[in-house]
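Example 3.2
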Amino acid sequence: MNKQGKLTRSVKRRSPGGKVLCTALVVTMLLTHTASAAPWQMRWNQLIFDSEIGFFGNVILQFASDGGSFIRPITKRYGTRITLESYIPTKYGYTFKGWFADPRIKQNQVTTFKFTKPDVLYAKWEKNPEGTN
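Structure, written as tokens:
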């Protein structure tokens, strides 16, 4: 606990390869004389870890449409699950084949997403036959 009466802990989540998945996972509680934990303060795009209740806060999902139309990033509460069927970009001369977790080989198609860490999904396109758009 510091001199202002705040209890602060930082947590970093890493992938098995050691890459940092989430940074600045910070817990800040204001301590008072009457309660052990007074009101929480949370920023809009902050993921917080508490040893009693686990992770909570907001997580962002971004879309890389690879030359297709822009899909606005989505911010949801930690643990929320969505389907991606309504997030479909367009690209002249191509057919959209889905969202994928891997930007290069595009083999792991994602149809639903659970907000557990900030992430990016990548569009896969198939060129239309000549004469069609």
